[in-house]
Amino acid sequence: MAAGDCDVPFSVQSITKVFTLTLALGKIGDRLWQRVGREPSGNPFNSIVQLELEKGVPRNPFINAGAIAVTDAILSGHEPREALGEILRFLQFLAEDPTIAIDQAVAASEKRTGFRNVALANFMKSYGVLENPVDFTLGVYFHHCAIAMSCRQLAMAGRYLAHNGRNPSTGLLVISPERARRINAIMLTCGHYDGSGDFAYRVGLPGKSGVGGGILAIAPGQASIAVWSPGLDAAGNSHLGRLSLERLTKRMGWSIFGN
């Protein structure tokens, strides 16, 4: 089901972090957790303060520092172009749509203005958290955050998280049920930055937001849901997107905490 501007592509930004986390876990498994934590940050998504206190290890894979570390894990052993191509092909595969592409203008803007991300990456490099040249890792990071997708494509891509790691179209496993459950858990606790607790309280679903105004939410066993409304709240999450998901979960009884 779909409504509104469901086929209009937009910059999904941090929502791609769900899919890069999936890829990185597939590559190096639980060794990833030696380089990034699994706890809520309680700070803005681009904060450097916590990173300094915790010796360069990011709190979770969904804040900027954590996603840069995850990107570095995907990049290891590859050229940047190869790693970026792998991320893009993975999204095209999940969404069953080869037209999904990177918005090059957005990627160039990210690189031109991403001074805080450069600082985060260099700080992690100084502690040995990043293995690859900072410029290579950031290049892949800026470009995968600039991937443009519609709500329909995004909801399709997230289906494996709603179905125990399995693609419902083919019946084939994308990831193990255990890993899907754990990614959903991190989405619930960390997917909306410092607004994650409020999102869990009001919506009651695992979700991941992006500053482009999108939210991917997962109703386990039921549905993958994507919404898009560019107006952001103080924590950097879509205000109307959260309201619409709150109404949907109430009406459908989909909250993981009960009706």
Automatic annotation (TrEMBL):
Enzyme Commission numbers on file: 3.5.1.2
Catalysed reactions, semicolon-separated: L-glutamine + H2O = L-glutamate + NH4(+)
Pfam families from the UniProt entry: Glutaminase
InterPro entries: Beta-lactam/transpept-like, Glutaminase
Binding site for substrate: S14, N64, E110, N117, Y141, Y193, V211
First-level EC class: hydrolase
Annotated family: Belongs to the glutaminase family.
Protein name: Glutaminase
Gene symbol of the encoding locus: glsA
